[in-house]
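Incident log, support desk, overnight shift.

02:14 A customer reports that sequence design results differ from what the structure should imply. Their input is reproduced verbatim below. On-call engineer (initials T.W.) acknowledged and began investigating.
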C-alpha cells in the first residue's frame, strides 16, 4: 500500500520518493547492497524508459539522502553536497502550499528541453538567468545570508517564468502577491510550474501571517519540515 501526505501532481517529487522507497525495499528483500549513485542512476533510466522522454535526478537525491542538498552536475556523475548548516533557518522560514491544480512536470520539462536544443534564444537566456539565480541561492545558504537567499529565490522564479507562459498562472500570481505582501521574501513554483505547489521563504516571525494569506487565496498549506535522513526500510512483524 502506498500512502502520500500530499496530492499527486503537486510538484514535490512524490513519484521519485516512491521509486526510491520501492528500490530500497526490493534491495532489502534481495539482501543486496547498492550505492546511492548506482540506485539513482538506475531509477533515472527506468523513469526515462517508462515516460519515453529525458528525465533528471533532482527529485531522487533528496529522497535518497534527505536534508538540504546542492546537486552539482559534473562530467562522470553528480556531486551531491549537504547544506545541513541551513537547517535551523529552513525550519523557521519555509512554507509550502498546494495551489489546488495538479500538473505533469515531464511534459513541461520536455517542451523547454526541446526549445533549448532548437536554439530558442529567449529560452536560452531565461535558463541562463535561472542558473545564475540558483548559484546565488546556493552561495547565500552556504554563507548564512538568508535575506540574500530569499532574494535569489524570488529572482530565480522571475527568470523561470520567462521560460514559458505555462510556468505560472493567474492563481499562482495571486498567491505570490499575497505572500509577498504578508512577509514572504522568496517565492518559487515547485517542479516544472504550471500548478502544483509553491514554496515561500519568509521573514523571521512571519510564517503564520504568510500561511493565513495563502489560505485566504484558496491554497492548502502543507506540513513540511526538513529532515536529515532519506528513505529507510523498517521491517515489522
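02:41 Re-run completed on a clean worker. Output:
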Amino acid at each position: 500500500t502506498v500512502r502520500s501526505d500530499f496530492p499527486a501532481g503537486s510538484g514535490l517529487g512524490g513519484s521519485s520518493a516512491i521509486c526510491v522507497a520501492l528500490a530500497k525495499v526490493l534491495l532489502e528483500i534481495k539482501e543486496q547492497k547498492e550505492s546511492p549513485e548506482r540506485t539513482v542512476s538506475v531509477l533515472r533510466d527506468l523513469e526515462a524508459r517508462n515516460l519515453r522522454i529525458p528525465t533528471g535526478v533532482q527529485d531522487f537525491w533528496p529522497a535518497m539522502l534527505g536534508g538540504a542538498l546542492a546537486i552539482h552536475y559534473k562530467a562522470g556523475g553528480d556531486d551531491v553536497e549537504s547544506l545541513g548548516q541551513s537547517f535551523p533557518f529552513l525550519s523557521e522560514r519555509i512554507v509550502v502550499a498546494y495551489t489546488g491544480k495538479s500538473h505533469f512536470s515531464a511534459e513541461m520539462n520536455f517542451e523547454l528541453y526541446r526549445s533549448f536544443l532548437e536554439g530558442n534564444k529567449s529560452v536560452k537566456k531565461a535558463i541562463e538567468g535561472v542558473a545564475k539565480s540558483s548559484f546565488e541561492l546556493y552561495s547565500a545558504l552556504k554563507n548564512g545570508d538568508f535575506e540574500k537567499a530569499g532574494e535569489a529565490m524570488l529572482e530565480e522564479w522571475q527568470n523561470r517564468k520567462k521560460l514559458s507562459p505555462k510556468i505560472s498562472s493567474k492563481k499562482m500570481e495571486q498567491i505570490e502577491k499575497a505572500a509577498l505582501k504578508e512577509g514572504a521574501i522568496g517565492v518559487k513554483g515547485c517542479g516544472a510550474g504550471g500548478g502544483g505547489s509553491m514554496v515561500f521563504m519568509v521573514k523571521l516571525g512571519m510564517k503564520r501571517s504568510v500561511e493565513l494569506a495563502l489560505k485566504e487565496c484558496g491554497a492548502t498549506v502543507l506540513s513540511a519540515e526538513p529532515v536529515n535522513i532519506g528513505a529507510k526500510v523498517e521491517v515489522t512483524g
